[in-house]
Amino acid sequence: MINGFDSFSELYSDYVEVLTKYTRECPRFGIYFMVTGNGTNSIRYKLAQNFKMALALELNDKSDYYAVVGKTTILPSKAVGRGLVKIGDGVYEFQTAHPSRKEESSEFFKKLAVELKEKYPNKAPAIPVLPETVNMKIFDDPIENLNHIPVGIYKDNLEICFYDFKKLFFNKIVANDIDNTKSFVKELLSEFNGITKFKTYLFDANNQISENYLNITKYTNNFDAVFNSINDNVNKIYDEYEKANYDNSIIAKYQPMLVVIYDFNRLKSKLTVDLGAILTNLFNKQEKLPIINFVVVDSVETFKKFEFESWYKQVSSPDDAIWIGEGIANQFTIKLTRSSDRALQAQLKNDFGYVIISGRHALMKVLTFDANNLQEVNERINNSVEEL
Q1: CB 41 within 8 A of CB 72
Q2: DSSP helix/strand/coil, 221
Q3: 292-299 and 321-324: which strand pairing?
Q4: Domain boundaries, position 268
Q5: How far is 48 from 14, CA to CA, in rounded Å?
Q6: Domain membership flag for residue 127
Q7: Helices 182-193 and 371-387, interaxial angle, to 10°?
């Protein structure tokens, strides 16, 4: 039942055509609709044709009754609750009935609600709606692997959006401005923080992430030494793996690594080592030695600056990314297969974004940081350490 179709059509104009289809097709499946309006023009003619029964309460002009029930010589009396209804080929006057005296109606309905609840304990499942905020608790199962990380809820079907951070060596989180990504990245780090199967490093070049993630090693300086160490470590493991004729038991001995870089441009400016050369080396070894993945966060302008450099073209996929906030339609760095989609022009807040996989984009409500979730994860880590 839609009570007040005038307001519905004004607030949700995009759904009027959908409702026209539903009211035409659904009765054969046992689904029926009831709508109310303030006047004869409230419901468009195309939609009104789908309703086989129409009731008219008191209207301003007698011609308005003709619009609802057809030509008739009958007009309702001026009594409260009196109206006309068309049944078959006949038009009849009716009187609206009240289930109780007016002064007793409140108590009557309260009592009726209790009786119905007791008589029919089974409830219809709740209609899913897009929550006000999305965080890691949207996913009931434990988050254990990089290839199945919840990053938001799809707006069109309200299903959880999972992202595979293992599929690509170089995963990008992009926005018009890097500050737009901060809340999303903090909650994503909370998810990474709870996974003990791999070692996570956070390079925060501008010291923007102040939270304490117990299972994540954070660096705000000394970047050259750390990157050289990671590079040397992967080279060492690869040499051992190659000498063992690519025996997978060698990989099993070592903990996989996840490197998160927040503010890639700032980090690169602080390095004296050739980061492009290091990433290229690690990327080339990744094909046979899937032991390290990167999650790189920055503005679209930063990625645009590097998109024609040979190392970037080798390690980065141009049509895969997570985009936070508005502005995706005004750039060409992230390649979209449907770049002309008008919906891309929408003015989005930073709790919305797009997941782009092989150029195909989907709008989602993205993760928002919740400090309580981080605290719970940290407590769980502490408890597991104490048990050991």
Answers
A1: no
A2: coil
A3: unpaired
A4: 136-387
A5: 17
A6: no
A7: 20
* Structural domain contains residue 261: yes
Q: Is residue 124 part of a domain?
A: no
Per-residue pLDDT tens digits for 5-30: 988 888 888 888 899 999 999 888 88
Which pLDDT score is estimated for 171? 98
d(C-alpha 4, C-alpha 37), whole Å: 5
Question: Which CATH number goes with the domain that contains 358?
Answer: 3.40.50.300
Token digits for 98?
A: 């009240």
The backbone region for 150, taken as left when phi is positive above 0, alpha when psi lies in -120 to 50, beta otherwise, is beta
Whether residue 245 lies inside any domain: the answer is yes
Q: Are strands 292-299 and 170-175 parallel, antiparallel or unpaired?
A: parallel
* Number of domains comprising the chain: 2
Q: Are residues 172 and 34 in the same domain?
A: no
Low-confidence ranges of the chain (pLDDT < 50): none
The per-residue pLDDT for 68 is: 87
> Do both 59 and 151 map to the same domain?
no
How far is it, in rounded angstroms, from Cα 88 to Cα 53?
Answer: 9
Give residue 297's identity as a one-letter amino acid code. Answer: V
